[in-house]
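TA notes, week 10

Several of you asked for a full example with nothing omitted. So below is the full record: structure tokens for the whole chain, then the designed sequence directly under it. When grading your own attempts, check the secondary structure regions first.
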């Protein structure tokens, strides 16, 4: 059974940092591209970025480029999202995600609130 469990969210001031983690189980983690998504109140869920199975290649949406870094530790089956220089508009529930054979797997999400 595929499980994705996010952690690390919280309340942070503008300009601060947080690191989110996503622990995976139930599948061969190192074989799959992984994604981070987020959903802000009243908005649709959006892709934050992606990382290739070997961690060599990453993609970021423009609004987080140069502030966020996605990484992974395949032996630990863990995905990370390092978020720096956080802005009010980064407030959202953050989800890790994988898609295989047109099936989407999501974690339960972790809340990130950026507020002064």
């Amino acid at each position: 059974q595929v499980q994705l469990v996010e952690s690390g969210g919280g309340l942070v001031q503008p300009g601060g940092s947080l690191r989110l983690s996503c622990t995976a189980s139930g599948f061969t983690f190192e074989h799959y591209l992984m994604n981070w998504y987020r959903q802000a109140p009243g908005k649709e869920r959006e892709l934050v970025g992606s990382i290739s199975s070997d961690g060599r290649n990453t993609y970021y949406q423009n609004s987080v480029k140069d502030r966020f870094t996605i990484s992974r530790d395949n032996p630990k089956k863990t995905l990370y999202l390092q978020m720096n220089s956080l802005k009010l508009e980064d407030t959202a529930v953050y989800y890790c995600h994988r898609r295989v054979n047109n099936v989407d797997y999501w974690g339960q999400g972790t809340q990130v609130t950026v507020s002064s």
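The CA atoms of residues 88 and 114 lie 5 Å apart. Use that as a sanity check on your answer.
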